[in-house]
Amino acid sequence: MQSIAYAQDKCIDSQLLITSIVAIFEYRQLDVNRLLKGTGIFRQDLQLIDHKISPLQLMSLIDNALALWLGDDLAFLLGQQWLPVQSGSLTNGLFCCDGLAQMQNFWHQYHWASQPWLQGWHWRTENLQHLLLQLDIGAQRQQRFFIELTLSSLVSTYKKLSHNTWQGHFSLPYTAPKLLDQYYKYLGEDLSFNQPICVISYDPDIHQHPFELANSQGLKLARQQVKQQKQAAHYRIGLPAAIRLLLIRRKTRSYTLPQIAEQLSLSPATLKRRLKAYDIRFQQLQDQANMQQAIFLLAISGENNLTVAKQLQFADGNNFRRSFKRWTGQLPSQFKYWLSQVSQP
Description:
Distance between the termini: 40 Å
Largest sheet: 5 strands, mixed
CATH topology of one domain: Arc Repressor Mutant, subunit A
Order of helices and strands: EEHHEHHHHEEHEHEEHEHHHHHH
CATH class of one domain: Mainly Alpha
Oligomer: single chain
CATH superfamily of one domain: Homeodomain-like
Shape: globular
Strand content: 5-15%
CATH architecture of one domain: Orthogonal Bundle
Helix content: 40-55%
Strand order of the largest sheet: 4-5-8-6-7
Number of strands: 9
Number of helices: 15
Structural class: alpha/beta
């Protein structure tokens, strides 16, 4: 297993997001002391090189920020600033990519160095590419914040590097806010809410839009540097993401909590406690993994209910249908063409 970060482990570089939140509060003349209260984060520490905070501290900071911020655009604004405030080899690599496909591949390999709160997968249907996103560090109550942050940073970064407007569909796993102005402003109008999982869908032709600063030698150097940093890093994945990977892999997808605990060299009681600190339960991760696999088999592989039920080791098709409806609120048949039917640019 990769080096797994628990909720209290200092594994997140404070320069990635924390300093940006503090800076935007200072710019708006909001109370930074109240922002940092109870987080265990101190302003003077943010000036230190390689200063890190824990997922618990990050979640506490975001709770404070959302409570104090006047408006509903904080995550979108932070997303717009994401690329400009990055530094080092990873940013150099992004700038040197020749297009979206190369940028996504580079980000996917080394995203823990820039957005460690994310976990992603690539799928493809006949006419569309799809990027699925889950939260690496749990933080389910802050799901909307992290998704808004991520999608805003994607759209902004793509526009900066390609000088083209983003064209794609966003499937969002929560209820639509009362006011959608910020979504339309920063993400466009091609949106659907109340979806089972966050998915970014787009036409593969967008890969042909070249990035103006493409530099193959620069990318090669950046890749070597970031790879070395990744190998030297103590943490590479959060506990929720590590468990989700085990529950998605064919050999371990049917593992129970005690079996997963054994894989991680933990007792079942300790694993439950470790997950509780992340504000997530094992059953939630198991449901997420099963739902993701079921949607893949239905929408990508085109399997029928009985085949999906068998692969996910359900007793029968009826049992699978009931579980699927519990996960998504809908029947499996409604998802067979789900990803093929999102609007295309």
